[in-house]
Design goal:
38% of the residues lie in helices and 23% in strands. The chain is of the alpha+beta class. The chain has a domain of 135 residues: minor pseudopilin epsh fold, CATH 3.55.40.10. The protein has a five-stranded antiparallel beta sheet, with helices on one face. The protein has a four-stranded antiparallel beta sheet with strand order 3-2-1-6.
Length: 212
């Protein structure tokens, strides 16, 4: 390189693609590439020009608007998806915990699914009516955009409204149950509760009991 030349063009003698004029390849980090971009941009628009034109600012604002229009729906979709998945995981953990607690405490527990109010709560067959009301007041409300679609049980079949109760016996047994959850974007989840195996199967789609 020639000494005494303070221009950026002289200090970075590159060809298109980052090749050195004397052969070889110039290794450039993100900051160097950005500096080179600014240099070429300033040459193209006039090195001594200050500020931006109205057209340039309009283009920048337009590009930002396009980026937001694309990213916000995706962000909202991810929130809905995460809420559906987190609700599914919470129900799975709740069922496993109640099964273990029923065996340990030798107590019958009841898991309520109120489809109309989109709530889930727990109580026991040994508590008073006042305690039962308190348990319902502490119910877990499903997050916005997620709802209980229906609940199928061996004895009563599919229910799409009302309060469905799943009983956990002192031995941890439960009635064969299928729970369907849905999100407002159309995604659905299926939870299959096995009576004796202690396993819960989950599917990221609506699966009818006849297929399980």
């Amino acid at each position: 390189m020639k000494k005494g030349n303070n221009s950026l063009a002289a200090s970075i003698p590159t060809l298109p693609g980052g090749a050195l004029k004397g052969g070889g390849k110039l290794k450039m980090g993100k900051q160097n590439r950005f500096a080179l971009f600014i240099f070429h941009f300033s040459i193209f628009n006039g090195a001594k020009r200050q500020g931006f034109t109205l057209i340039e600012l309009t283009v920048v604002v337009f590009l930002i608007g396009v980026m937001l229009a694309v990213s916000i729906p995706r962000f909202r979709y991810s929130l809905i998806t995460d809420s559906l998945k987190s609700t599914t995981r919470r129900i799975v953990g709740l069922v496993k915990g109640l099964r273990n607690e029923a065996i340990r405490e030798q107590k019958i527990y009841l898991l309520h699914f109120d489809i109309g109010s989109n709530q889930i709560w727990i109580d026991s067959d040994t508590i008073t009516e006042e305690e039962r009301e308190m348990a319902q007041k502490k119910a877990f409300h499903l997050p916005p955009g997620v709802q209980i679609l229906d609940v199928w049980t061996k004895r009563k079949g599919k229910r799409v409204d009302g309060n469905i109760v799943i009983q956990f016996s002192k031995k941890g047994y439960i009635e064969q149950t299928v729970i369907h959850l849905g999100a407002e974007d159309g995604r659905e989840f299926t939870l299959f509760l096995s009576p004796f195996l202690g396993k819960i199967k989950s599917y990221d789609k609506y699966v009818d009991i006849g297929i399980l």
